[in-house]
Amino acid sequence: MQLTDGAHHPVVVIGGGQAGLATSWQLSRHGVDHVVLEADRVGAEWRNRRWDSFCLVTPNWQCRLPGFPYDGADPDGFMVRDEIVDYLENYRQAFDVPIVEGVRATRLDAGFRIVTTAGTITAGQVVVATGPYQLPKIPRLAERLPVEQLHSSQYKRPEQLPDGDVVVVGTGQSGCQIAEDLHLAGRTVHLATGSAPRVARFYRGLDVVTWLDRMGYYRKGIEEFDDADAVRLRANHYVTGRDGGRDIDLRKFALEGMRLYGRLIDADRDTLRFADDLKRNLDHADAVSEGIKDSIDAYIAAERIDAPEEARYKPVWHPDTAPETLSLQGIGAVIWSTGFRRDDSWIRVPVFDGQGYPTHRRGVTNVPGLYFIGLPWQHTWGSGRFGGVADDAQYVAERIVEQRAGVHWIAGLHRTVA
């Protein structure tokens, strides 16, 4: 499909990842003419920003984009990177999504004038589906380090790194999985921990994700939390789907030779410096995991479910002292697993709060006809993920249809225009 300069479209969806594709499916179901703009290719984030051994941390059965649930032979397994890309490509082809690839939206003005790399178009309504992971976040202290550095989104495999030890900064999902990847390859890893929680892979006979799904956790809306803003900013629990799925136990890695540190707080050309919080970080991660098990136990008891008993986790290693410094001598590379930030500078429409976050309710902004989809915790934990984006896409598509019929939704309120 080609983009025609000067054309007008009833609806333009900006972004061709899972959120944009799911929105397109819902719009087609409602008979709404639209076009999807994708700056790269379908599945570009999965193709370009994931390492070779990457796999999902949620079971395959949670891959349930609208009209296209996972139907492979391993619903309890975890798709690897190339299988995820194939899933999205097959989805696009199955429904003949009206997508234009290789065209980036560079400006969105009030009145929905959209400047792109292939010309300027206008829209009656716009859905921004560009996702939350646009610009890598790297601390300024990185400028002081004389060693090779890369962000987690640039990491592919251990062999791409120079000889020497590797420092991984950050223990979110990417940091822990990359540290494991390097550790399994025989590299000496120095891991700077943070406050990210962990979760067990399996408990009492089922994947923990399965238990949480049955308990309704993934259907809990953000408005049900007293600290909604804090919930949106929480780090994801670290775990892995590698080799059929298992826990990521940093204490076990330490027994095997991985070097653990507290939070990285400073650096110069010769030395990294860490906070004295390693024990607290490990204990916090374990406490969150055990708390989730408590909730599963309570659910099993309340529902009178016949589930096998399971012994609780016992720490296999404790730090005697927390190393506060690390010499850069012998360090070959530093990997910054420090997350991303949004880049909405191209959107020239007043829909952002004082911190630059889109003001919305379930993706509906205060500007009639402008929507977001794929934001973390847009409505539930699954927003933007394969498991929950279908519900968000349906909600946004229904608001688009109502807008076309003269019903305006603003921040959750609505009025009918005569």
TrEMBL record:
<dbReference type="InterPro" id="IPR036188">
    <property type="entry name" value="FAD/NAD-bd_sf"/>
</dbReference>
<dbReference type="InterPro" id="IPR050982">
    <property type="entry name" value="Auxin_biosynth/cation_transpt"/>
</dbReference>
<dbReference type="Pfam" id="PF13738">
    <property type="entry name" value="Pyr_redox_3"/>
</dbReference>
<keyword id="KW-0560">Oxidoreductase</keyword>
<dbReference type="GO" id="GO:0004497">
    <property type="term" value="F:monooxygenase activity"/>
</dbReference>
<protein>
    <submittedName>
        <fullName>MSMEG_0569 family flavin-dependent oxidoreductase</fullName>
    </submittedName>
</protein>
<dbReference type="InterPro" id="IPR024000">
    <property type="entry name" value="CHP04046_FMN-dependent"/>
</dbReference>
<dbReference type="GO" id="GO:0050660">
    <property type="term" value="F:flavin adenine dinucleotide binding"/>
</dbReference>
